[in-house]
Amino acid sequence: MASAMTMSLPYVNGASRGMKYPNRTMADWGSPLPTRKISPHDDVHFDSALKPRAHRMVETPSTSKVLFLNVQIIDSTGTEPYHGDVYVQGERVRYVGNVPKVETLRNDPTVRVIQGNGRTLMSGLGDAHTHFTWNETALDNLGAIGVEEHTISTARSAMVYLDSGYTMCYGAASAKDRLDCVVRDAINHGNIPGPRYLANGKEIARRGKELSPGISAYADGPLEMREVIRHHAALGVDQIKLSMSGEEILEDRAAEDSYFSEAETAACVDEAHRLGLRVCSHARARDSVAQCVRHGVDVIYHASYIDEATMDELEKNKHRHVVAPALNWLYATTYDAGPFGYSFDKAEQDGYKKELDVAIKACKEMHQRGITVLPGGDYGFAWTPHGTYSRDLEHFVKLLDFTPMEAIISATAGVAKLFMQDQELGKVQPGYYADMILVDGDPLKDISVLQDLSKLNVIMINGRIHKASPRDFELSRPMQIEEPTWQPRSKLSNYVSYLDDQHNSHVGHLDLDSSMVTPLAMLSGAPVRSLYQVIELENAVVPCGDPVPLAGLTLQAPLSDRDILAVGKNYVDHAVEFNRSGFDSSDKIDQPTHPVIFTKRSTSIIACNEDIYPHTEFTKTLDYEGEIGVIIGKPGFRIDERNAMDYVWGYTIINDMTARERQRDHKQFYLGKSADTFCPMGPIAVPAGQLPKKLRVQTFVNGEKRQDATTDDLIFSVAKLISVISDGSTIRPGDIIATGTPAGVGIGKNPAKFLKPGDKVEVSVTGLGSLENRIADPSSDNAVAKRVPLESHLASLNLERTVGGLGLVCLGGKQVNVRRIGTGPDIAVFVHGLGASSEYYTPITKSGGFEDHYTSYVYDLEGHGLSATNVASIVTVESFADDLANVVALTGASSVTLFAHSLGCLIAMAFTLRDTSKVKKLVLMGPPPCPLPEAGKVAMSKRAAAVRATGMMASGTADAVSEAGTSSATKVYQPVAYAAVRASLLSTNPEGYAKACTAIATASPMAVERLTMPVLLMTGDEDKTSPVNVVMNLNERLPDSRMEVLRCTGHWHVYENVEGVSRLIRYFA
Q1: Which residue has the higher pLDDT, 245 or 787?
Q2: What digits encode the pLDDT tens for the residues 368-411?
Q3: Residue 607: strand pairing partners
Q4: For residue 371, what are the contacts with CB-CB under 8 A and spacing of at least 6?
Q5: What range(s) does the AB hydrolase-1 domain occupy (predicted)?
Q6: How far apart are the C-alpha atoms of 325 and 299, rounded to whole Å?
Q7: Exposed (0-12), middle (13-18) or buried (19+): which is 104, by Cβ within 10 Å?
Q8: Which of 173, 425, 551, 976 would give a disulfide with 416, using CB separation of 3.0 to 4.6 Å?
Q9: How many alpha carbons fall within 13 Å on the CB side of residue 890?
């Protein structure tokens, strides 16, 4: 049951998928990126036609039962270790975490009980680059070893792998044609001990370009290579190995030399794939790696000298490639081979130190990009002896910056992906093969503990105990998980506001020279969304991603939701030109005695490079005013001029566009300066401390300089303006004061020069870049008029969980979380209940064989899980049925099987009654009465009001529903299941939950007699929401139904009794 309750943590640093790094160079490789997947192999999808033939180990009888008690479980899903028990029956794990009737099992003499005493129970390890036939001697000697002796040493290698805790090995080449296959079959038949194994043949090499003559299968040219591959396939190999580049130790065949032609590589992949075999390749050289990626080599060994272009291509195609770098061969050859006559100096001279360094850098980059990198260190040489395989995991942690959890997952679930059995290998989960090791230590604190074979107290493969000793169960060690810490980095100060492709707002640092934007985050790791946050954080922000081109972003004004506080006639020369222009209707003196303060409406604000709407029906005297904008950093009232500069956060650029005749005729500034688009602002905002005391402002129209002055020319200083404005009103952080414009505006010319469509206005300020805008064509749209109607105070709720709706699907105008699972021929759609989410069905859709039988569509109801709800939307069972209809339409199927729980049952029936031909079968789990009795309607309405008022927790709803909705047995024996119910309720959006309560309360009676398709009804013997008598009544009304009652089960059937539910579904659907 534990597996049904846990949620994998797919990312170590954040949740952003699909981010690209177009300007990341080799010099940057190895430095952290903002995101990386903890299980990148989940994105690898080998063609199903390449799945290896079934090599089943001799079956462990179902009478074999092993109970692990009191263990710390690392289940390889990415969840933190958790304490519990594990029960194995036959060859598979049956229960993880909470074992039902555990005391009965402990006292059962047929059950072998292992006292874990807090030790770590984890999946057996896997090696992606295995050579059973290497016997710790030179490669040149392998071909000369007699078959008999070689068979014995190979069988010994297989046993050593298992003794070392390795239960999965992917063969990388065999020194003799059939030896890998023979040993594989002997292991599977139970004749010799060893891990699960996928066998290889001799590696295919061109004549004169082989690594060693005795172990190579020679072929030159596409045709001969195809023939050799067919020969290998006839021997029964599981994959094909190509030897595409050299090896430094050979001296005359360098690692950077590539030996296969494009045509040869393409032919090998084509022929192998045609025969249902995958291809792996010894590819150190740049060109070899490029060919592997270009032509689809499935497993790339080494990849040391990959270049930037190939790295980019590999990232694009990471769904079909796995890289196994064999780091330990490089490391040991560089540092450990001295006692065997190969000194460090020699290794460095031959290039191994260089290759190790570039391989580390490349592998770090692959890992950060989400490319699957798996351990497997090319063991079986003198200085990489058998039995030291776990050194690779230490290298992954210490050299490649994997976390210990990432290293373990790569060596378990990751290698299971190579077997194409990732749904039954590589994890400690119910239904998976029981390949496990019990470790006396904590590999998450010290990954090297896995190298100490004495610490591998119990080794189990296929449910059989390979290694165990009574004294192994006496020791224990407490587990401690250390939380990662965030290390802030250097400050960046050219703050730019922009929208991403999902229209989410961000703040970054703009490099004015390169026009590249670096996204910024708070020290907490949360992305910075507005300049207000930067101001409030006092600029304590850090970079959180690689720079991206400004041209690919939607630039925004630094701040755009408040009116601008503006100042008129604040430069001496401009005051004179304005007074003499005939457009000044104020006090008719050149220099004002007090600051002239006015406001510009916030709807006038636009960003750099947005067009200025000309308003030809509003003005014929369109003019520019380049200005410096002061951004306030803290609130203040009646601020003393002497202290006023302490209230300045920074500066930006403003173009105070003006309709001069409106300014003149209305005898005030507001109307003529507040028209839509009349306040271009930006492109950046910069803290005052990053700028000189004196700022210079210049304005150009179509390249002609029109204005040029500095802040020394102001009539009223910035400090004076702040003091005057705050004298009667409180200024706030983020307020902007436009400080006035210098001489050189259009009305100051003789004759006046007004702006016309097509003109380009550019305002530049010291350290703030340039604000550029064009005057639009009169026939163009007013962008502000189009933007304002999109603003709404009727909020869409629950979007914060998907960062504004990322990954959601728009169905019927709603943002819905829909997932497709499995590849089976039949279509299933799952509808969850009140307070649940689509994750409720994960134990079903992930159970054995379901994905092969069904292609499943699971979705979240409105306001539940990850799906959004608008605060004003009215939700009913019929509106839910509309949403279900949209999901069914999305499947493209003519008819589907519907699986529904609780409220979902009402939705499923309402949808089916509209068109019964759309539904083949119905599985209804816990259908509530419809309509509810009057008391039930009142209770639901009160619950909706309580949740809206105080939320799921404070209202007591989560606790009350968890308590009433689960059975006595669940509460006593299955705390994880109980916690899952409570967690599901607590994570439900209160408004979404309340709306669903109202939908149930207002549901109308249904003519269920029209549901003529087969229907499976389920309820629990302690289900208070859907009591047995209610379901019996429904069963009697349905023409073709079957009813089942789950024992010791409340209303949350899947969480409480997943085996019972799965069994009934298998029999019915």
Answers
A1: 245
A2: 999 999 999 889 888 899 999 999 999 999 999 999 999 999 99
A3: 681
A4: 40, 314, 315, 318, 321, 323
A5: 829-1057
A6: 10
A7: exposed
A8: 425
A9: 22
Q: How far apart are CA 822 and CA 851, in angstroms?
A: 4
Task: Judge residue 794's burial from the number of C-beta atoms within 10 Å of its C-beta, 0-12 exposed, 13-18 middle, 19 or more buried.
Answer: exposed
Burial label for 594, CB within 10 Å (0-12, 13-18, 19+), is exposed
CA dist 739 to 579, 633, 726, 735, Å? 18, 16, 15, 13
Residue 711 near residue 786, CB atoms below 8 Å: no
Radius of gyration of the chain (CA): 35
Q: What is the pLDDT of residues 525-534, one digit of tens each?
A: 889 999 999 9
Distance CA 684, CA 509 (A): 9
Alpha carbons 599 and 597: distance in angstroms, whole number: 7
Give the integer Cα–Cα distance in Å for 120 and 480: 12
Residue with tokens 């810490």: 485
Other Cβ atoms within 10 Å of 117 Cβ, number:
18
Helix ranges, 336-454 (H): 344-350, 352-368, 391-398, 404-409, 415-418
Provide the strand spans (E) within 625-753.
Answer: 626-632, 648-655, 658-659, 679-681, 686-687, 696-701, 704-710, 736-738
Looking at the DSSP bridge assignments, the partners of residue 283 are 302
Handedness of CA 715, 718, 724, 729 (dihedral sign): positive
What are the residues whose beta carbons fall under 8 Å from the beta carbon of 957, sequence distance 6 or more? 943, 946, 947, 985, 993
Specify the residue for token string 């604040």. Answer: 570
CA distance 917 to 667: 73
Residue ranges of domains in the chain, CATH in brackets: 153-402 (3.20.20.140), 495-554 (no CATH), 557-789 (3.90.850.10), 803-1068 (3.40.50.1820)
CA 401/CA 367 separation, integer angstroms: 9
Q: How many helices (H) and strands (E) does the chain have?
A: 33, 48
CA distance 279 to 201: 11
The Cβ of residue 286 has, within 10 Å, a number of other Cβ atoms equal to 18
Q: Which residue has the tokens 């589907």?
A: 896
- Which stretch of 31-35, 394-398, 676-680, 969-973 has the lowest confidence by average pLDDT? 31-35
